[in-house]
Design a protein that fits this description.
Number of domains: 2
CATH superfamily of the largest domain: HAD superfamily/HAD-like
Largest sheet: 7 strands, mixed
Structural class: alpha/beta
Oligomer: single chain
Shape: elongated
Mean pLDDT: 95
Number of helices: 12
Order of helices and strands: EHEEHEEHHHHHEHEEHEHEHEH
CATH architecture of the largest domain: 3-Layer(aba) Sandwich
Strand order of the largest sheet: 8-7-6-5-9-10-11
Low-confidence stretches: none
Helix content: 25-40%
Distance between the termini: 32 Å
CATH class of the largest domain: Alpha Beta
Radius of gyration: 20 Å
Strand content: 15-25%
């Protein structure tokens, strides 16, 4: 006997979308009911949605500046035990290494390598080694300037973290960036776990090398797996958020993968893509 189909809900959100605009997108699936979730969010239930229709909805929503999420109807935040996040351009708005390079007058060169790596065009470990080598001789104090002057939490990030903590989930910040930043963000944002690369320094200056193994795509996945094992849950009870190709392996083992302001290759493979809303849109999707 075939399994019963899994019922889906469609959650539509847009920072500048009103209920009329959201309702117009919802009508594409001909739902049995729609429910306003807040001023800029709407839930649609009771519909049959083929892959072709789902793609049509996603395209129409994107064109309207609206994030559309198709997830299991009963899925809730309480079904999960961990939220794992990439750092650069996900939990925070900048790529730290690009801003560090700016202190050397090398931002364009380093940013070009970063972009290629995030699109999956370059091996991440090799690209990181090339970028870090360009930082040789930079005073360590420059890292502090990047943290103080340029690092900002992504929109909705603090609200999202407060919501998942209140629901009893643990948090993991796993980054191909650097411990200088994750170690400062951990107490600031009350994060439970962090893992990142260690920049080598000598005599107050960066050497252009990373100490130990590089946190690449495989190490990110292993970190999520280790953290899940440590807290006694299966990886399918993890929500994983990222934006670049080096996040795809850890997103692939998650129960829910979330692409945030992500590269096309990541959006295409994620369960949910947040292109316009803040990180706290996750709370609405899983309400």
């Amino acid at each position: 006997m075939p399994d019963s189909p899994v019922l889906k809900k469609l959650v539509l959100q847009g920072p500048r979308a009103d209920q009329a605009a959201l309702g117009a997108i919802a009508r594409l699936v001909q739902p049995q009911s729609t429910t306003p979730l807040h001023e800029h969010a709407l839930r649609a239930d009771g519909f049959d949605c083929t892959p072709a229709l789902q793609d049509r909805v996603l395209d129409a929503a994107y064109a309207a500046g609206i994030d559309a999420a198709f997830v299991d109807a009963g899925l809730a935040l309480a079904d999960f035990g961990l939220v794992a996040m990439d750092m650069d351009s996900t939990l925070i708005t900048i790529e730290c290494i690009d801003e560090i390079a700016d202190m050397q007058g090398l931002k364009p060169q380093v940013s070009a390598i970063t972009e290629a790596a995030m699109r999956g065009e370059l091996d991440f470990a090799e690209s990181l080694a090339r970028r870090v080598a360009l930082l040789e001789g930079l005073p360590v104090e420059a890292l502090g300037r990047v943290y103080d002057e340029r690092l900002r939490i992504s929109p909705g990030g603090e609200a999202m973290l407060a919501g998942v903590r209140a629901a009893g989930l643990q948090t993991l910040l796993v980054s191909g960036g650097f411990t200088f930043f994750t170690e400062r963000l951990q107490p600031r944002l009350q994060l439970d776990h962090t893992h990142a690369n260690v920049l080598e320094a000598a005599h107050g200056k960066l050497t252009g090398r990373v100490l130990g193994g590089i946190v690449d795509a495989e190490e990110k996945r292993r970190t999520v797996e280790r953290t899940c094992a440590a807290i006694g849950i299966a990886p399918r009870r993890a929500i994983v958020m990222g934006d670049g190709a080096n996040d795809l392996q850890m997103m692939g083992i998650a129960g829910l993968s979330v692409a945030f302001r992500a590269k096309p290759v990541v959006r295409a493979q994620a369960d949910v893509a947040l292109n316009f809303c803040g990180l706290d849109a996750l709370l609405t999707i899983l309400a």
